[in-house]
Amino acid sequence: MTNDLKESFSGSAGAPPAPAALAAKVRTLAPSMTRSMQRVAEAVAGDPAGCAALTVTGLAELTGTSEATVVRTARLLGYPGYRDLRLALAGLAAQQQSGRAPAVTADIAVDDPIADVVAKLAYDEQQTLADTAAALDTVQLGAAVSVLAAARRIDIYGVGASSLVGQDLAQKLLRIGLIAHAHTDPHLAVTNAVQLRSGDAAVAITHSGSTGDVIEPLRVAFDRGATTIAITGRPDGPISQYADHLLTTSTARESELRPAAMSSRTSQLLVVDCLFIGIAQRTYETAAPALSASYEALAHRHNPRTR
Amino acid sequence: MTNDLKESFSGSAGAPPAPAALAAKVRTLAPSMTRSMQRVAEAVAGDPAGCAALTVTGLAELTGTSEATVVRTARLLGYPGYRDLRLALAGLAAQQQSGRAPAVTADIAVDDPIADVVAKLAYDEQQTLADTAAALDTVQLGAAVSVLAAARRIDIYGVGASSLVGQDLAQKLLRIGLIAHAHTDPHLAVTNAVQLRSGDAAVAITHSGSTGDVIEPLRVAFDRGATTIAITGRPDGPISQYADHLLTTSTARESELRPAAMSSRTSQLLVVDCLFIGIAQRTYETAAPALSASYEALAHRHNPRTR
DNA sequence: GTCACTCTTGAAAGATATTTTCGCGCCGTC
DNA sequence: GACGGCGCGAAAATATCTTTCAAGAGTGAC
């Protein structure tokens, strides 16, 4: 039973087989993998071309594991089986070969000159954006957009760095005339979540997928019948059980100087922006005038004489 | 005998499996193919992606031939067997698809499918990052880093969308042991700015460079002798006259659906991240332990069972 | 410290896909 | 019209992939 649950879980989460977002997917799912599976995933992400040339047995031997483990890993990555993973791998290999070099930039070091820091950071964030976009499940995204566009009210939960993302989303939604509120106080969040019911929507933002202060209000909202959306980097985390719609953010490798919060924020913001644009499209009739109105309203706050 | 000859012939001629020149190879070898093989080759050249999804049996049925013929065709094209042809096909398909992608330079339209929205947004934000990184004055950045790293206390001003960026900066600086505060209330900001003096630092964040509510506290801080830093997209705006150091964010084109706030935020966050990393480098001795300490402190807030 | 439990793992059986073999039937030639 | 050669597909043989199952490792509770 537990096995069944887990399998269907991971399988449905990554419904469409990832085309080029494989490295990102490996990084995203690595924490939820067992040691042996991680070895396989690592090999696959590290040398797509080489692994594409191997059979299950070959890859199992290379990684010192068994065929069963290889197949399990393929499944976890969202493919029906090893055969399909292998095809995707071949595609990926062809892509990297034709495209520019993988360019694995070095970590940011303590003694990097400031110009290097700028370049590396910009590159890393670009990479994060590309990964997130590639790995984002557009079906789930579309569903989330529909839910939010039609919701009576929208509650948003996030703490720490994710709280800012939540506020960003709330600001945007308010600007196009939706009723949205970003909660940062966990207690108040729960208190408010109790008020939700069918027809309302709740959005939880947490990179770890296991932040109690965010899970709790989402659970309450879920139980009350509101439609729930989770934006998380760990689609297998505890929060997913209370999420009707799951939007996965991709995870970049982090270093000592560059905490995970930095790239997760970039990723989350992209998702939030996509939600916003999607909703603005659906509600264009009301969103467009609302946007220009809010623009107008701010005009007088800016000193007109820009020299 | 003759059969053997032909096989070894074509086999050795195309020794290295063709990478992307498959269509050409099909055309070249077509005359030497039998009718059935031509049908298979045609199908393969016409729809690589579709054929890559088929098994030998499937392709045989599709072309109205047999498995044996499909395998023979694969051999003729220079592959050891159908399996390898299929891998090459998958690679080819991926290549064509990625080649088609770069057509996302257009604006986001109201009727864009959600997948396009994601691609375009990601692309735009990547562009913004690249522009910002290229335009960022590293000398000014280095100076700002020095100021902040040495400041007794740091006040940060931002309203609207920029307020979130300011809070992000404050959160980060606090995590490495600096005394930073992000003000969102313009009145309180001014009230606090009055307290500043030489040795303190003030950071103002405004895209327009002319937001009165942000200019005012920065002016006060400037007059009181604090070192002032402005992060703005308009280096010629009124705010610059009160800024000791000016960090310019780049501005991407905006559209009706994509307000300026979106790309300016991306740009501002990159600058903030650069500041943070720069400061963390300078104060590594204290920053590193502080970072891991704050990491530790949060650990128990996460549900430990992530697997 | 030990026990019971769950989760991970690989060996081997089972299912599919691919390759090879083999012979039929079409086609041109004498 | 008969013979020889060749293309072709059915089916056997093989390789590859998938599933099952039980043993082992790790973990938490008492």
Description:
2 copies of one chain form a homodimer. With 307 residues, chain A is an alpha/beta fold. Chain A is 59% helix and 8% strand. Chain A is built from 14 helices and 5 strands. The first copy, chain A, has helices spanning 2-13, 22-29, 35-46, 48-52, 56-62, 67-76, 82-98, 114-135, 138-150, 161-175, 186-193, 212-223, 260-282, 284-299, and strands at residues 154-157, 180-183, 201-206, 227-232, 245-248. Chain A has a 5-stranded parallel beta sheet, with helices on both faces. Residues 1-18 of chain A have low confidence and may be disordered. Chains A and B meet through helix 7, helix 8, helix 9, helix 10 and helix 12 of A and helix 7, helix 8, helix 9, helix 10 and helix 12 of B. Chain B binds a DNA duplex (30 and 30 nucleotides) through residues 2-3, 34-37, 55-57, 60, 65-72, 81-83, 307. Chains A, B: Residues 144-285 form the SIS domain.
